Amino acid sequence: MEGAFIAIEIDDERLSDSIFSDNDYIVTSYSREVLQNKFIEISNLLGIVGALAAVIVFIVALVVVKYIVKNDIDRHIKIIGIYKFLGYRNKKIV
């Protein structure tokens, strides 16, 4: 069966003295299936984070577009009123 060994070096002297008296490494082995499952979990998590970021960007874009359109209408409201007073129809103003 194929697998992987993961070794983590311990830098803290208190930890290595109290738990692993003569050893400065923690060695763990995982089977290929376990590692594949972990990589799938990580990729799923990254996908969720990416989807949330896309939703946030979309919402911010909607707010910005709404602000720009409202601001443009507010800026030109007097001109639109003048055109209506002069007899222009809505189709000609647009």
Provide a descriptive summary of the structure in words.
It is built from 4 helices and 2 strands. The protein has a two-stranded antiparallel sheet. The N and C termini lie far apart (73 Å). With 94 residues, it is α+β, with helices and mostly antiparallel strands. Helix content is 67%, strand content 15%. It has one domain. It has helices at 13-18, 32-75, 77-85, 90-93, and strands at 3-9, 25-31.
Radius of gyration: 32 Å
Side-by-side strand order of the widest sheet: 1-2
**Percentage beta strand:** 5-15%
Largest sheet: 2 strands, antiparallel
Bin the helical content: 55-70%
> Which consecutive residue ranges, at least 5 long each, have pLDDT under 50?
none
Blueprint (SSEs and pairs):
Blueprint: E1 3-9, H1 13-18, E2 25-31, H2 32-75, H3 77-85, H4 90-93
Antiparallel strand pairs: 1-2
